[in-house]
Amino acid sequence: MQPIIQHRARMLLAGFSFFGDPFHSHAGWTEANEIGRLWQRLERLAALPSVQNTLFASIAVSYEMHLQNHETPQTGEFEIFAGIEVAAVDNVPLELCVKVVPETDYAVFTVRGSETYGDEPVLDNWLRDNGYRQAFPFFLQRYDARFKGVDHLAESEWDILIPIARVE
User: Fold this and answer.
1) How many other CB atoms are found less than 10 A from the CB of residue 9?
2) What is the pLDDT along the chain (168 residues), one digit of tens a residue?
3) How far is CA 45 from each of CA 16, 74, 130, rounded to the nearest angstrom?
4) pTM here?
């Protein structure tokens, strides 16, 4: 799996967040765990007439952020954020929170179907073998029209964006 190195400007993402072990009730790709529930909340909000013609007018791309902290390796708990990119925070509904994603370089890996299972060692090895380190304690999953849903993973494709910096 070879990534494309891509520089991305700062992004503003509006969405919902969960902190803890998102797999404590259900493991894997399912709408029954905390990650699936975040996406369901976002879809319900996007369907409300009061927000349909605002920032949710044309959701073509959405993001899932996995944000770790210093206790993550011991506890297995981390933050999951599901959202969409917005141009400004002025019209973000009160129900949503906003993440400011820093400008940086990314290693962008495109994954297909079941390739995503167990990718972490592959991605970590790629970073090490190519003289990079993770620049920030998060990664993004970018979903667009290529993603067909959790019930159709085998036919789906999406991107994993890892913020990178050269090892010095």
Assistant:
1) 8
2) 789 999 999 999 988 888 776 665 555 555 656 777 887 887 777 676 666 556 655 567 889 999 988 887 888 788 899 988 888 888 787 888 899 999 999 999 998 876 655 556 677 889 999 999 999 999 999 999 998 877 787 888 999 999 999 998
3) 10, 34, 41
4) 0.81
- Residue 19 host element (H or E): strand 11-20
Give the other-Cβ count within 10 Å of 151's Cβ: 11
Look up residue 14 and give its two tokens.
Answer: 């509006």
Q: Which domains does the chain have, with CATH numbers?
A: 4-166 (3.20.80.10)
What are the residues facing 19 on neighbouring strands? 79
Exposure pattern of 74-111 as b/e (b: 16+ CB <10 Å)?
eeeebbbbbbbbbeeeeebeeebeebebeebbbbbbeb
**Cα 105 to Cα 99, 165, 168, distances in angstroms:** 18, 7, 16
- Which residue matches tokens 């509006």? 14
Amino acid identity, position 110: T
